[in-house]
Amino acid sequence: MRCSSFLLCRVLVGLILPVLFAACAPRPTVVPPPTLPAVSPGDLLERVKTCGAAIDTVRGLAKVRLTTADRSLSLSQVLLAAYPDRLRTESLSPFGSPLLILASDGHELDVLLPGEGRFLHGPASAENLHRFTRLPLRLTDLVGLLLYRPPLFPWQEIHGGSDGADRYRLFLDGPESRRQVFTFDAALRLTGAAYYSGSELLLEVGYGNFQTPDPVYPRQADLHLPAYGVTASIRFSDVTPNADIPAERFRLQPPAGVKVEKMGEK
To answer: 13 lies in a domain?
Structure first.
């Protein structure tokens, strides 16, 4: 009986002592996550206004993926853009030959379909542009997004600041429940812009892979237009901001013997 009591005591001591030692051990110091320096909403707004201001042209080779409600495609494109409204895109086959060449000087739009022997010409309207890019955007808006200049619309109220330890956000509230939300990384580079009507997201753009230090330019961009069921991603494998692009690159001439087809007016 005495032996059993002794064993029981040893078991209890073995169970209790670790608990006591753990209770007496110093607790590890909890280090709070670092916080970003305070930046005023006005300073963030200035970042939006000057974003891409040092970039007047872009020339690059990119992989573009476009998803719409009825199709999805991925292809390589040569992209040339000049502020505020000049654009040229060359969609390439897997063998590098052009499938479609589109060019606009801001007023007229030319489209060449080499494989079909077709040449189309008309005003650079949003409707004509959408016909070939599948993006429901005006020419100035599309060029602005390519040049790292997201649109800034009229607003009435402003607030924002650091949002956790790795980003800043700026909110601009405008008339008719319109809202613009701009996101910045810890280095205050603009990484996203979203535009709302009430709770409905109209357009969202995201930027990333900043590998050009001066001027700062993203090598990837993503567009999302939920109401149209359109998503587009651009991944540059080679890009040159402020490239020297001759004005004639934004106009096309019909090949010999190819009839010019007129596109709709504005």
So the answer is: no
Q: What is the pTM of this model?
A: 0.83
* pLDDT for 33 beyond 60: no
Least Cα distance to 159 among 178, 181, 177 occurs for 181
> Domain of 152?
41-262
CATH number, domain with residue 246: 2.50.20.10
| Residue 62 CB neighbour total at 10 angstroms | 22
Q: Domain total for the chain?
A: 1
Sequence-ordered strand ranges (E) for the chain: 57-67, 72-82, 86-92, 98-104, 108-113, 118-123, 157-162, 167-173, 178-185, 190-197, 200-213, 216-225, 230-241, 260-262
Share of the chain above pLDDT 70, in %: 86
